Amino acid sequence: MQKLIMIGTGHGFVFDCYNTCFLMQNDDKYFLIDTGGSAHIVQNLQKLNINLGQIHDIFISHCHTDHILGLFWILKRLAGMIRSGKYEGSLNIYCNDEVANSIRNIYPNLFPNLYVDLITKYLNIVILNDNETKNIAGKDYTFFDAKARGNKLYGFETELDDNKKLVFLGDETCNPEIYDKIKNCDYVMHEAFCLDSEQDIFKPYEKHHSTVKSVCENFKDFNIKNLILFHTEDTHLNNRKELYLNEGKQYYSNNILIPDDLEIIELN
Ligand SMILES: [Zn+2]
């Protein structure tokens, strides 16, 4: 049984939910996708009853603060766990070269030498090339350059049970050069910054982001069975699902999912 466990669903500067990051669960194995920007990554994993000792594989899509900074809080917690014998094995970080350079440059300056030495021993940074496939937590993931306008951004596609396919596109409006990867997919994960009616307030296009309407209109003929939208503003969390679904359904006839933080989606 594969599950998608949403740890956070907000954009880069939210306060009332956590930044977008999630786990791909395959039976008892976990693969963490992005880390958000704060120590809440550790807290939200605790709320989900997931021990950091179970996490040995992390993918960081790009260098922005809301995707990479949570990693340093994970590293700090893991260093403590290693010291007390509660973490075994290595921690693999899959990322592009830009992200790898940032991690290598930053972490030695953040912690006491004892921690830096421990982290250096267990950290295994795997630099990904465009269209490279890795078997992670028991499933194949093919990572690709999403051809973003900002920092170098990687997404991935993976085959689920029953030959179903899921594609994660990171947090920029999908570049039309990528459209062929997402057509006829079972699950596509894409950002939607805000409602179209509120674009004057949140100005998504300035940041290479989308509105619910713009994603749904762009993808309406792609035969994507489940469109998962996240990386949103945080002013409507109590009724975000309803508001976003109402807007999306006017332009998109297949299933749309607007997950909340800590929500678990069964991929079947
Ligand atoms: Zn982001």
How are the elements arranged and paired?
Layout: E1 2-8, E2 21-26, E3 29-33, H1 40-47, E4 55-59, H2 65-83, E5 91-95, H3 97-106, H4 113-122, E6 123-127, E7 132-136, E8 139-145, E9 154-159, E10 165-168, H5 179-182, E11 187-191, H6 199-202, H7 212-219, E12 226-230, H8 240-249, E13 255-257, E14 264-266
Parallel strand pairs: 3-4, 4-5, 5-6, 10-11, 11-12, 12-13
Antiparallel strand pairs: 1-2, 1-14, 2-3, 7-8, 8-9, 9-10
Helix pairs in contact: 2-4, 7-8
The structure holds zinc ion.
Write a brief caption for the model.
The protein is of the alpha/beta class and 268 residues long.
Could you describe the 3D structure shown?
The chain has 268 residues and is of the alpha/beta class. The protein has a single domain (2-266), classed as Ribonuclease Z/Hydroxyacylglutathione hydrolase-like (Metallo-beta-lactamase, Chain A). Helices cover 27% and strands 26% of the residues. It has eight helices and 14 strands. The protein has helices spanning 40-47, 65-83, 97-106, 113-122, 179-182, 199-202, 212-219, 240-249; strands at residues 2-8, 21-26, 29-33, 55-59, 91-95, 123-127, 132-136, 139-145, 154-159, 165-168, 187-191, 226-230, 255-257, 264-266. The chain has a seven-stranded mixed β-sheet with strand order 6-5-4-3-2-1-14. Strand 4, helix 2 and strand 5 form a beta-alpha-beta unit. Helix 7 runs parallel beside helix 8. The longest helix has 19 residues, at 65-83. The radius of gyration is 18 Å and the shape is globular. It starts with a strand and ends with a strand. The model has no long low-confidence stretch (mean pLDDT 97). The chain binds zinc ion (ZN).
